[in-house]
Sequence to fold (103 residues):
Amino acid sequence: MIKRFTFLFILLLAIAGAPAASAQEIVRYVKSVEKGGTDINGGTSWSDAVANIQYAISLIQTEITNNRATSGAVYVASGKYTPPSPPAATRANSTHRLSSPTT
Fold:
């Protein structure tokens, strides 16, 4: 009976096609330069964390744009973070909003 069920299941998958893998949420990690973060890293783990929050966001946006992810999260370690100084013409319109996590 089990052999028959297994055969039918495999046959159904072959006829219907196996479900395609879908893109997942990705996470990028940020920690201060004092704690070892650097923008040479990819931000894929705490040991590979980037130092710039905006850079982590742009890494996620690239993954979403290239259909390798559907959403993303940025985990930020405690520490002091200073946004890079934008050109004078855009300083008045620059913001960096952080929200608390939602579950």
User: Anything to note?
Assistant: Residues 16 and 82 are 53 Å apart (CA to CA). Residues 3-21 have pLDDT under 50 and may be disordered. The radius of gyration is 21 Å. The longest helix spans residues 2-16.
